[in-house]
Amino acid sequence: MAKKIVVDPIPRIEGHLRIEAKLNDSNVIEDAFSSGTMWRGIEIILRGRDPRDAWAFAERICGVCTTVHALASVRCVEDALGIAIPPNARIIRNLMNATQQTQDHLVHFYHLHALDWVDVVSALKADPKQASAIAQSISSWPKSSVGYFKDLQQKLVGFVESGQLGIFANGYWGHPAYKLPPEVNLIAVAHYLEALDFQKEIIKIQTIFGGKNPHPNYLVGGMACAIDPNSDTAINIERLSMIKKIIDDTNTFIDQVYIPDLIAIAGFYKGWLYGGGLGNYLTYGDFPETTLADFKSLLWPRGAILNKDLSTVIDVDPRDASQVTEEVSHSWYTYSKGDSKGLHPWQGETKPSYTGPKPPFEHLDTDKKYSWLKTPRWKNHPMEVGPLARVLVAYAKGDPMIKDTVGLVLKKLEVGPEALFSTLGRTAARGIECKQTAGFMRHFYDQLVANIKTGDYRTFNGERWDPSTWPNECKGFGYTEAPRGALGHWIHIENEKIKEYQIVVPSTWNASPRDGNGNSGAYEAALKGTPMHNPEQPLEIIRTVHSFDPCLACASHVFDVNGKEITTVKIV
Amino acid sequence: MKFDRINVIGLGNVLYGDEGFGVQAVKSFLESSEYPDSVKCIDGGTQGIYLLDYLESADAVIVFDALIPLDYDRQVYVYRNEELPGFIHRKMSSHQMGFSELIGLARLRGNMPREIVLIGIPPKDLELGIGLSSEVSSLLPEAVLAGKEIVDEWLSVS
After folding, report:
1. Mean confidence (pLDDT) of chain B
2. Which one of A324, A538, A569, B35 is CB 3.0 to 4.6 Å from B39, fit for a cystine?
3. Which residues of A are catalytic?
4. Chain A residues close to B51, C-beta within 8 Å
5. Percent helix, strand and coil across chain A, each to the nearest 5
6. Can you give the pLDDT at residue B30?
């Protein structure tokens, strides 16, 4: 008889995602269902507000990616009102975005995902001498002495013996799906702690440009920070050199720690190539060298790949009503013209209508509606978004830097490009992309300095700040490639106020339920076919879902009073 | 020993009624009095791990946050140091890597502030919408005053 496993909730950052997986008799996942269990209603909060304020509300919908929502929001308002921002504002936004992405990927790898592959308790058994030798063989990172690993191990032993496993209390330590030798586990735990120090530094770039962090300041028409090399309060020489140092340290950490760790860890999991899923990938592109409308200038190219076919990249236009749509056949909403009819976000509707079971419940009726997430589709295809989609599109388009890094990682692992279509491929793509965006940080820093040297200090274009200069009615689209994938904000302004606002976030793409044609979303497809060692310890499910970096408060809101455990597992 | 750096952090999601209590409280705290530069006020929103520096870089920390469980008597609760973990558990908007995990990380790294205080109120209304319920609003001044008294006490240490 088929068994059903429920994992609820999964993400370590944001609630609330519920995965239901059906196993066959051999404990292989036969089918999976992904459900957002909280309603999100930012669209309703924004209605009737001043479009210039939208970013400040939008950035509150996600606990992690505040800056990306602010960015997409100001971009959509500027698009609607026809505002061109000064070059400094474009460069600073790109630099902040690259910083956010780099930092987010590091934190994801070390603090949210690594423990799906790294067994902390096994590190207690490591031989510090061997750990030191391995660390020195894979990288020139200086913190690699025998004494360093010995001290760390003793600290860890003390921590565990005091009974305060604390942050590590929820792992499935000792699970046979963990494959790393104790020494590699110890190295990874060392870098887990080092990455914490490091992420505290990198975030300072947001504070310098955005005035504060979290929740840096954005501004419709540009950026709120002033540039003046000779002023104490503005972006000056001293602050610029501080930024330069952070960028250099970031690149060093990625080259000497993140990438070598990724390769070392992945090398022990080459036999675990599950979790590929849809094979359809979508990216809107980002990091404009000129304007957002000039998509040929995007450093991350836009495009779509279908059925893992890397020979063809199809162009993507999120403004086109026939391309990006959302339907609600299996989502707890109703549409005025039928739930299975996909609506482009400019025609989008947000009418919640919960028809699921009353919580707490055993499982959802997945034949009917079963998620608070809408069901976005691109030309009716379910799509995966995020680092793997971006890396594959850039790789398929022949981006030289991406080709180099992908080639290096594949060669070290002795696998072909087809290995990228997997959970591990998704995790590797995040590292590859992190190296790329850290390079972008350098690029945009140099651009900023060069532009300031020409005497251009402008950061804001106020020509259309006054609502009396606006048309009575207009529509806009703003996009960015957030750490988790393609993010779009669509706005409709009427009489100086927001008439409608729709956001399609990355996790809605990836965690979407089935559509009216019965096609699974990206998580659902990725879980199918995965064998589980022990259904009561669903490490394999968590691995694959974490590889997408889910951030479900992004996609869905309101509360779940019962979500006490990090992982609730029931065999139904 | 003197407290050279005091951080006052407000946590919560302002889009969900009383969930925004902590953020509102830190705003009122900032407006309630003139503080020296050693006192920093931070609107932490629903950020998790990204707030680690604000926890570790201070000698003393005050956290304002909505409290779970929801069926506690609605009043201002103040927890100091050891009393504290296990109470910061917001289930609604966020994050299994929440503030309690940050405390765990800071402990592991040996970077805990000398003093940490949580000031919280169990929320009444967590529905989508901006603004606190009248019940929580009416308790806000008391919560802010409790924070102010503690900060004044810390500032008087030389």
Report:
1. 85
2. B35
3. 14, 62, 65, 69, 484, 507, 551, 554
4. 214
5. 45, 15, 40
6. 95
**Strand arrangement, sheet containing A17-23:** A29-36, A17-23, A3-7, A569-571
pLDDT at A560: 23
CA distances in angstroms from A278 to A467, A471, A524, A528, A562, listed in the order given: 45, 42, 9, 10, 32
Cβ-contact A223, A459 below 8 angstroms: yes
Cβ proximity of A392 and A305 under 8 Å: yes
- Provide mean pLDDT across the span A315-339: 96
* DSSP one-letter code for A358: P
d(CA A91, CA A42): 29
Cα separation, A407 vs A26, whole angstroms: 36
Preceding peptide of A376 cis, ω within 30°: no
Q: What is the dihedral of CA A198, A548, A168, B114, to 10 degrees?
A: 40
* Residues of chain B contacting A, Cβ within 8 Å: 13-16, 43-53, 56, 70, 91-97, 101, 104-105, 107-109, 126-130
The answer to whether the CB atoms of A64 and B91 lie below 8 A apart is no
Higher local confidence (pLDDT), A552 or A116:
A116
- Whether residue A106 has pLDDT greater than 50: yes
CB contact under 8 A, B107 and A164: yes
Amino acid symbol at A85: I
Name the amino acid, one letter, at A42. I
Please name the member of B45, B95, B109 whose beta carbon is closest to the beta carbon of A215.
B45
Instruction: Please compute the mean of the pLDDT values over residues A527-539 and round it to a whole number.
Output: 88
The domains found in chain B, sorted by start residue, are: 6-156 (3.40.50.1450)
Task: List, in order, residues 6 or more apart from B13 with CB less than 8 Å away.
Answer: A60, A63, B19, B20, B45, B46, B92, B93, B94
- The type of residue at A98 is A
Residue A99: is its pLDDT beyond 80?
yes
Q: Is A56 exposed, middle or buried (0-12, 13-18, 19+ CB in 10 A)?
A: middle
Which of B48, B49, B89 lies closest to B69 in space, CA to CA?
B89
φ and ψ of A248, to 5 deg: -60, -45
Chain B environment of A39 (Cβ under 8 Å): 128
Encoded tokens for A203: 């975030």
Question: In this predicted structure, which of A139-153, A222-236, A480-494, B8-22 has the lowest mean pLDDT?
Answer: B8-22
Would you list the DSSP string of A454-513? TT----B--TT-SGGGS-SEEEEEEEEEETTEEEEEEEEEETTEEEEEEEE-HHHHHT--
Give the pair of three-digit tokens for residue A493: 């302004």
Confidence of residue A68 (pLDDT cuts 50, 70, 90): very high
Q: What per-residue confidence (pLDDT) applies to B72? A: 72
Give the β-pairing of B77-80 and A473-482: unpaired
Q: Measuring CA to CA, which residue among A219, A247, A235, A256 is closest to residue A73?
A: A219
CA neighbor of A431 nearest in space, from A90, A206, A93, A108: A108
| Separation CA B7–CA A560 (nearest Å) | 30
Measure in Å the smallest separation between the Cα of A207 and chain B Cα atoms.
Answer: 12
* Predicted pLDDT at A561: 25
